[in-house]
Structure formats: structure tokens, C-alpha cells
Design a protein that fits this description.
Blueprint (H helix, E strand, L loop, with lengths): L4 H19 L26 H16 L3 E3 L4 H10 L6 E4 L23 E3 L4 H14 L6 E5 L2 H17 L9 E3 L4 H12 L6 E4 L3 H13 L2
Parallel strand pairs: 1-2, 2-3, 4-5, 4-6
């Protein structure tokens, strides 16, 4: 998504890796190539939502270009949609940041070195991150939080991982009272933040895969102090 600086940085990192590979003689004495696509929502391109654009771009890469592997998407929901759309193409999908537990067995494989499957990720799943998050919050003396969570496999998956670990430590599960909102929906996100501000809990757990949503939440918190 070239509308986000973090994604542009990832694109540059991938470009550097391919350049270095070719400078070193390529793979088995063959040069390697990479095709870059953006999935940003922009009327300059089309009217597609980001997830739909991810599927459209990935299908074109696999079907028309014939790539053997795709690096991306970044978000868990987009990664799941792309993998399911490309099941018939035998194309490897490698996400640099998707962490939802829902992806762990999505390709139905029991991965080994000899048969690693076609859905990879380079970040640890939220079964690990939820545990660490719960331990950190509980260690600060917080036993109850109100959760504002992006709808979808990432947000709801991380919330469930957090809740399981938090309850095991002695905290209260936030799942029943979680405030869900669609990614990048400014109106509903603002409503959820306002609702959290009047909740009985003194701490807020905000979960989103989108940089813009995270920045907005921090801004609201800073202005409410």
C-alpha cells in the first residue's frame, strides 16, 4: 500500500534484497526479478477496497505474469483472501507481517522442511504476541480492560489470544464487551473511542492492523488526558 510510508519502506527493502541477490550472481547463476504492485484505495486506479485490490493484483501476478511467489500482503485479512483466491495456482504467498492465528493451518498442511506449504509469514503468530501483551498489561496492575478491535481475522484473533492469556493470569476477559469497528472506518472508530472513554474500565486495549487507525487512537488518547 504505497499510501503508507511503512509499506514503501518494505517495498524498498525487498528491492534491495533482489538487487543484492543479482549482484552476487543471482540464484543458481540466474538473475531474479520482482514486480511491484500497490493495493492502496485510490480513485486514480479503480474503486476497489484494499482487500479486493490485493486479490486482484495477486491474481494478475499469478495468472498473467506467472510469478512463482508473492511477498505480501501485509494484513492478515488480506493475506487470507489472497491465499484462498490463489489456491489453484500453486503460488507461494509470503507475508512480512500477518500474524493472525487463523492463518496457521489455512493451507491444510503439516509443514516440514521437505513440504513447507504455500503460506509463509516472517512474523510470529498472535498466539505468542497475545501472551506477551497480556503479561505486560497484567504486570502493570491492570486486571480489566475495554477493548477496541478492528473487525477481521487479525483484530479478533489477537483479542482472543490476549483474552485467553489474560484470564489465565487472573484478569477479566474483554471479549464480551469488545467494541468492534471496520478497518479505516473513521466514523465507527471515533464512536468506539468515545464509548471507551465513558466505560467503567480504566484501561483501553486498542487493536488495529492499520497505521492510520493507530495514529488516530493515540491522538484521541493524548487529547483526552
Amino acid at each position: 500500500d504505497r499510501s503508507l510510508d511503512t509499506h514503501v519502506a518494505r517495498e524498498n527493502a525487498a528491492r534491495l534484497a533482489f538487487s543484492q541477490a543479482n549482484d552476487s550472481g543471482g540464484l543458481n547463476d540466474q538473475s531474479v526479478g520482482i514486480v511491484f504492485c500497490t493495493i492502496e484505495e485510490s480513485s486514480d486506479f479503480d474503486q476497489l477496497l484494499r482487500s479486493d485490490a490485493a486479490v486482484e493484483a495477486a491474481t494478475w501476478l499469478a495468472d498473467s505474469v506467472g510469478v512463482s511467489a508473492i511477498v505480501g500482503p501485509a494484513a492478515s485479512g488480506d493475506t487470507q483472501a489472497v491465499f484462498e483466491a490463489l489456491r489453484s495456482f500453486d503460488t507461494l504467498i509470503i507475508s512480512p507481517s500477518a500474524t493472525s492465528p487463523a492463518l496457521t493451518r489455512l493451507d491444510g498442511s503439516d509443514p516440514t522442511d521437505e513440504s513447507p506449504g504455500l503460506l509463509w509469514r516472517t512474523a510470529p503468530p498472535d498466539t505468542l504476541q497475545g501472551q506477551v501483551l497480556a503479561e505486560d498489561i497484567f504486570a502493570s496492575g491492570v486486571t480489566e480492560v475495554v477493548a477496541i478491535v478492528e473487525q477481521g481475522s487479525y483484530g479478533e484473533g489477537l483479542l482472543q489470544s490476549f483474552a485467553t492469556a489474560f484470564v489465565a493470569l487472573g484478569g477479566t476477559s474483554p471479549t464480551a464487551t469488545a467494541l468492534l469497528y471496520p478497518a479505516n472506518n473513521d466514523g465507527q472508530r471515533s464512536e468506539r473511542l468515545a464509548s471507551a472513554g465513558t466505560a467503567s474500565q480504566t484501561s483501553v486495549l486498542f487493536i488495529s492492523s492499520q497505521t492510520t487507525d493507530g495514529v488516530a487512537a493515540v491522538g484521541v488518547a493524548a487529547s483526552s488526558r
